[in-house]
Amino acid sequence: MKIGNFIKKTGCKLGIAAVMASPLALHTSCDEDTAALIFDIIDQLVGMMGYDPNQEDVADENTDDDFTNDDTQKLPSSRSWVSYAPPIGNQGQYGTCVAWATGYGLKTTLNRIDGKISSASSAANQTSPIALWHLMYNNTNGGASRNCGGSSFDPAFKVMMSYGVETMDKKPFTNQKMDCNASASGMGNLNNKLGDYRLVAYTSELSGKSAYGMSARNIKYHLNQGPLVVGAKLGERFMRWNNSNKITVDDPESYNGGQHAYHAMMVVGYDDSKGAFRLQNSWGASDWGDNGYIWVDYDFFVKNFAFGVWSASNDPNHYSGGIGSTLRAGSGNDLALTVKSDKQNADGTRTLKFDIKNVGSQSVDLEECNVALVLYRKKHFHEKAVLSKETAAGVLNSGEEKSFSITYSIPAVDNDGYAVSGDYYMYLSLDAKDEIKDEDLTSNFAFITGADSKPFEILDGEIGGQTYALHEDLSGKILGDYHGVELFHRLAKELGK
Q1: Which residues in the chain land under pLDDT 50?
Q2: Which DSSP letter does residue 140 get?
Q3: Which of 127, 270, 396, 497 has CB 3.0 to 4.6 Å from 103, enough for a Cys bridge?
Q4: pLDDT, tens digit, for every residue of 395-449?
Q5: What local confidence, expressed as pLDDT, does residue 183 receive?
Q6: Quick one: which of 154, 151, 116 has its CA closest to 137?
């Protein structure tokens, strides 16, 4: 019997969330035996969640592009990844929803989409949420609680990238039982690794600062690239949902304070005719929702339901592909950028010196080649200040090299009006608009960092300590950080390509 129907048939006057908020009141409306049974049901509901937004460090997770106001992208009226997804699972009385959404749900679905598995229906092809939870527990600081009582998305993605995850046949959820204690061993599988991930959208409630990307259009755009996962806030109506209609509202007074009101799920599609996103849950196929799924209204999703939305890919270079291949055979044009120094001047300004060398076979007119210097907050390129945007003068013959400099100041606020203070990188790019059709873009950029490839700190308008030029991607130094060519794509949009 479905939980909501059971409570209705008992004649009890209180809803699930109301009981969670005031359990003593249950005895005033139900007989003792019924109250005891409902308490047991509520215990199951509490366990069947487990997303902890308080452990989600949005400042340490890369964001993806926001397509909210991008009218150049024509989106189809619907998209569904349901046929690629594994069957509805049931996490039982454990707060392991993040592992179910990201591992069992998202990773298995990505594997099916990419042709790594022929079917998502067998245990041998399904990523084990139990193995993932144990990896999170043993390999991340606070990545998963001792009693299977909650976790967040960032550690789940990071261990999938580093260790891979074993399949359900090797680490099964037999009879809905699992080991939650410290002795539980994580089971990695290097053949089942995740490539990379990005934070697509988040609310000010999650970030503690400002919202980003939280629009139906942005989320629909990313759903056309693949399935997503969401961290959501649940109310009483959602918890007792049992039909195929879309949920459009929930009772704000029914939200239970604390992490047990928060839940992780996979977003498997959308449909404009319904005006809703399609979500796959991990509460079983028969006891909740529309056979384990639910339609969530667009407006309700972005304004009240979601804390954050994440995308992921099996391809570690997936987020670098926005401007096509990094190699363009045949043009004969190939420039290389080398940063020489970045130093503060006596008047408080700074000067960045760099060389441009023509390593191609053709002469290049540098007036067709843009140079841009951007200051951006660690892992959040949308929180940036364009320090310089110009072209380099002169013709550079094959084999020739010239020196240039940019004098700049650290601004008080970034391009969106936020105070510039905290951890930052700088990114210098050459020909981000791809005007000369450079054959190898990997030599056309440099990150300017603090020591050991870490960000430098900006305080009171000044960079603290020495800066260093890093010519390879940060992704080779720091797990999950931006790729240099990915920033070319972002900067090309910024420069009006």
Answers
A1: 1-11, 13-29, 35-44, 46, 258-259, 323-324
A2: S
A3: 127
A4: 999 999 999 999 999 999 999 898 999 999 999 999 988 888 888 888 899 999 9
A5: 61
A6: 151
User: Hey, is 347 helix, strand or coil?
Assistant: coil
Q: What is the pLDDT of residue 76?
A: 97
Contacts of 484 (CB under 8 A, 6+ apart): 320, 427, 441, 442, 445, 447, 472, 473, 474
Shortest CA distance to 317 belongs to which of 191, 445, 195, 479? Answer: 195
Tokens at 320, concatenated: 């670098």
Asked if 260 contacts 46 with a C-beta cutoff of 8 angstroms, the reply is: yes
Q: State how beta strands 293-297 and 246-247 pair.
A: parallel
- Complete DSSP assignment for 199-239: EEEE-HHHHSS--BS-SHHHHHHHHTTS-EEEEEE--HHHH
What is the number of alpha carbons within 13 Å of residue 363 lying toward its C-beta? 5
Count of helix runs (H) and strand runs (E) in the chain: 12, 20
Phi-psi region of 416 (alpha: psi -120 to 50; beta: other; left: phi over 0): alpha
Question: What sign for the dihedral angle of Cα 92, 153, 110, 128?
Answer: negative
Q: How many residues are given for the chain?
A: 497
Integer Rg of the chain from CA: 25
Name the residue with tokens 């649940």.
Answer: 234
The set of long-range contacts for 450-458, using a CB threshold of 8 Å and a minimum separation of 24, is 453/477, 453/478, 454/478, 455/378, 455/423, 455/424, 455/425, 456/423, 456/424, 456/425, 457/422, 457/423, 457/424, 458/410, 458/420, 458/421, 458/422, 458/423, 458/424
Question: What is the pTM assigned to this prediction?
Answer: 0.86
